[in-house]
Amino acid sequence: MLIPLFASPLVALLYNKTFKVGLIRNGERFVSGSVKRVELLDSLIVFERRDRGYIGIACIGLDDTLFSEKMRSPEDFFSRALILGRLLSNVKAEVELRIAKVSIDVMELSKKIERELSSLRVLLESQSTDERLLERERGLKRLYEKIRSGEKVGWMKPYIILRASDDSKERVVSALEREAEELARAITITLGVQTRVLKSKELGRMLEAMFATTPPVKISLGGEEELSKALAMPPYERESLDPRGVFLGYRVGTKIPFLYDVVRHGTRHILVIGPTGKGKTTLLATIANRLYVRNQVDVTVIDPKGDTEYMLLKGFSRFRISSSTVINSRKASLAFRVLEGVYGSREKWFESVQNGVYGRERNEGGPMTFEELERALGVKLLYADPPSREFQLNSIVTERYSAIILDNLTDDGRFVAIAILMSLYLEALYRTTPTNRLRRLLVIDEAWRSSEAALYYTRRLVKESRGFGVGLLFSTQTVKDVPEDVIHNFGTIIAFGSADSSYVESIIRIVGYKERGIDKKLQALGVGQAMIKLPDLATLSFIDIDPEVL
Ligand SMILES: Nc1ncnc2c1ncn2[C@@H]1O[C@H](COP(=O)(O)OP(=O)(O)O)[C@@H](O)[C@H]1O
Ligand SMILES: [Mg+2]
């Protein structure tokens, strides 16, 4: 849908306050020291100074849609400003973002608003619940009232100025030309904003004009930190855009990347909820892959159905657990009840499993041998050869990136294997040193589609892994499958949509957020779109997940 765009004046008015930080000090100059000669080259100006070599200036003009197009909330603005800040902080030359204010004809603007309001009204007749249109209408009405009450408005034009100095003119010229071109391209790609490296004549005029107006607005860029401070970035935005964040996709309807700070939030656990086919497995694999690529924290994937196997990148070590033996899950849960409380002695642990699953219940032939048990459970790959019987599954906490794939198992076999894996995981965990820092993410797809026995361990993992620096990334089809007493241990909730109203209600209940219209938003989400709630924050974000896989 196309909406006529003239949002810049709106922006200027709404965000004026933000820009008042760091006004340029009077008398500041681009070049200090006395200048011998000024040269206008193709796209930069070079000053030859009397005693300190050369200094050059290049400038990138940005389309003012940087701060307007698609921008409907302070949040969007901050995201963009921060991404821009990050790009700028990578530039070697000295860099400044300047925003020239241009005042605007009030009569002209009122007319424009009236026109836009009436075209919005037409759109709203057919789409009266479209939240974005409503928001836009409210914004325009606010602006209209402000203008009527005599408040001044203007629009802003952003420029990025690059400055380099050196004893050699050649080095100044080549550095600036390259950096200006690269930066302009990076901004266009990342923010979807038109950029242009100004020709030197234009640049000269622009600089003059900028210094003639009093005072131009300047945001100094000492780095991201400083920029976000300067812009009074709300903390939640700062962290979701932290460079450590894992890219999940884009905020719905925008090109604004959404980054999830897994290092910060991971140990608070992540729960992905969604009906079949909405993209849970894809999202899990995407996060696992991106963490692998970024080498940030270690990842263990327990894949009960083998769904992620083909999605995971090459670097993951794969352990396959398969068995054609049918194991009765009732017996398995008995076994694991027996297992409870017997940590400490591995031999006892094995005995318990053997006796519990096969011994007492099987009756004929006495307890199984270790090898028989291995075969029956299909867990051979998990152990070293006898006689040491040392768990190779230590790899579950020592391999940096591994996937344990349980395809080819019967349901019963899978249930037992998952329970065993989880108990091993816990045991291995207890041998590591406690920490609050995220070391590893344990990913389990459809973590609650399992046996009672496994549930016992799932619950313990949720409660205990955090203290050992292990975060959980679990998925489930429905909130109902997750036990009441652990659901609030999940700090991050990522919910896919569904038309089913009881599903939607259950999501709203666990995120505890009652803003009007969330139910509709959740219902309207398509495949690959999800709502995300970060720990301790009431703010919800809606994202188009951009998968790493396929
Ligand atoms: N982010 C996404 N964008 C586009 N299509 C997606 C996305 N995530 C999943 N899909 C599509 O939906 C299908 C089902 O995804 P999947 O992750 O298996 O869902 P689930 O695990 O919830 O059943 C995938 O095969 C893929 O074609
Ligand atoms: Mg799935």
UniProtKB/TrEMBL annotation:
Superkingdom of the organism of origin: Archaea
The AAA+ ATPase domain, residue ranges: 266-500
InterPro entries linked: AAA+_ATPase, HerA_central, P-loop_NTPase, T4SS_component
PANTHER family: SLR6007 PROTEIN, UNCHARACTERIZED PROTEIN YJGR-RELATED
Full protein name: DUF87 domain-containing protein
